[in-house]
Design brief:
two-stranded antiparallel ribbon, 426 residues, mainly alpha
């Protein structure tokens, strides 16, 4: 009888001492209460990642993401190995958010809803986020994301992981991304291509060629753009074939733009053919082609076209070409000033920015911009700082340093970041 009473007492004590998650008594709101302890709750939250109840694990990973300290990384890496796609996606966004604050507000997990056992979500159209070069993610973070991109619980989690690898410039995960290119899922292929664009490893360009004729225009255009960005000159015959065969206007523009980025004297005839095309995108791409080709014999033709062009977009491309071909002065009516002015336009700065990134790789162009920088507008100063962070040289340090003393706090912040990025790159 005494043995029975002891057994019953032991069972009662065990019931209250044991974690409630084992018998399903723990509720999602209990997890949220635990999370209120902040960083101190991390060991408890991490333990809950092993809970058999899906809702508890989801609340746990959401709480870990919200905590967002360096102590969140190991639990989030662990969560990427969960069998549930939603948890994998939330963990992925949380890992990126540590290095790119605010990412979870625009990431895939921000659009989640459950439809039974199925996840309903939508990738945002904006996919230009990328961390600056002075930020180096932990190798095990990239490894975890690469494994998800290769074999996550669902196509959404794989595509989301591929996007994350791109944001974090995870070059070590390139072999995992290549596997994604062979998928039949449009989102996964597309996100993988954009990630490869961000990482910019030319050696992988040959893996993209087979997608240049993909039946999905979204994938095809991304593959064409990736081919140009990765400078795959071996693909020029394929791009020319696409250009000549497609009836899709966007595909044609993308094909000619990538051909323009792969300078070859044989392309002069192509650029001459499209410089007066009725489509403004084709005119712009042809103009940029002359610039990349460094064909000074075309200066007179391009100058005349610059003066006569009525559309803003191709005029920016013509300005780019003229600066590339030696017109590097910065004066009121100069092509370079036209590009600089576009940085003040919300509608055109997205086009002018990448063109100026390429132009400022030339020391003479940077030298022309520096004297005008102190008198520039706030937008000009901020974006030129971002541009120099990407393509400036050692001579860019002093102008950026001077911007760290600007009267505008936003300019100061961007100049500080640009200096860090420049130093990390050079």
């Amino acid at each position: 009888m005494r043995v029975l009473r002891v057994s019953l007492l032991f069972a009662a004590v065990s019931l209250f001492a044991a974690p409630q998650n084992s018998d399903g008594n723990l509720r999602p709101k209990d997890v949220r209460e635990i999370a209120k302890e902040g960083s101190a709750a991390m060991p408890k939250l991490r333990a809950l990642l092993k809970n058999p109840e899906l809702e508890i694990r989801i609340e746990a990973v959401k709480a870990i993401v919200q905590t967002g300290t360096q102590h969140s990384l190991d639990p989030l890496i662990e969560a990427t190995r969960d069998a549930d796609a939603e948890i994998q996606i939330r963990a992925t966004d949380g890992l990126v958010n540590f290095y790119q604050p605010g990412y979870v507000q625009s990431g895939l997990s921000a659009s989640f809803r459950r439809a039974g056992t199925r996840i309903v979500s939508r990738f945002s159209d904006t996919n230009d986020a990328v961390i600056p070069p002075y930020i180096q993610p932990r190798p095990d973070v990239i490894d975890a994301l690469g494994k998800l991109a290769r074999g996550g619980a669902g196509q959404e989690s794989r595509a989301n992981a591929a996007r994350a690898v791109g944001v974090l410039r995870g070059a070590s995960a390139i072999p995992d991304l290549i596997e994604g290119l062979r998928s039949k899922d449009t989102n996964l292929i597309y996100e993988t291509l954009i990630a490869l664009q961000k990482i910019r490893e030319p050696k992988v360009a040959s893996n993209v060629v087979f997608l240049l004729r993909d039946l999905d225009p979204k994938v095809q255009i991304a593959a064409i753009e990736t081919t140009g960005i990765l400078r795959n000159k071996d693909a020029l015959p394929d791009l020319a074939d696409v250009l000549n065969r497609t009836r899709n206007t966007k595909v044609r523009r993308a094909a000619l733009t990538s051909i323009a980025m792969l300078p070859d004297p044989k392309n002069r005839e192509i650029f001459a053919r499209y410089l007066e095309d009725k489509d403004e995108g084709m005119r712009g791409a042809a103009a940029e082609g002359y610039g990349w080709l460094a064909d000074t014999s075309a200066v007179a033709v391009l100058g005349k076209a610059f003066e006569e062009e009525k559309k803003l977009s191709p005029r920016l491309s013509l300005a780019f070409a003229l600066v590339m071909l030696g017109n590097e002065k910065l004066s009121e009516e100069s092509p370079l000033q036209y590009l600089m002015n576009a940085l003040n336009s919300s509608a055109r700065k997205g086009e002018a920015f990448p063109l100026l990134v390429e132009l400022t790789r030339k020391p003479a162009v940077r030298a022309a911009i520096y004297p005008a920088l102190p008198q520039g507008t706030k937008d000009e100063k901020i974006q030129i700082a971002q541009i120099l962070a990407r393509s400036g040289g050692p001579d860019s340090s002093a102008p950026l340093e001077s911007l760290t003393h600007d009267a505008n706090s936003e300019v100061v912040q961007e100049a500080v970041r640009a200096l860090q990025a420049l130093k990390a790159r050079i």
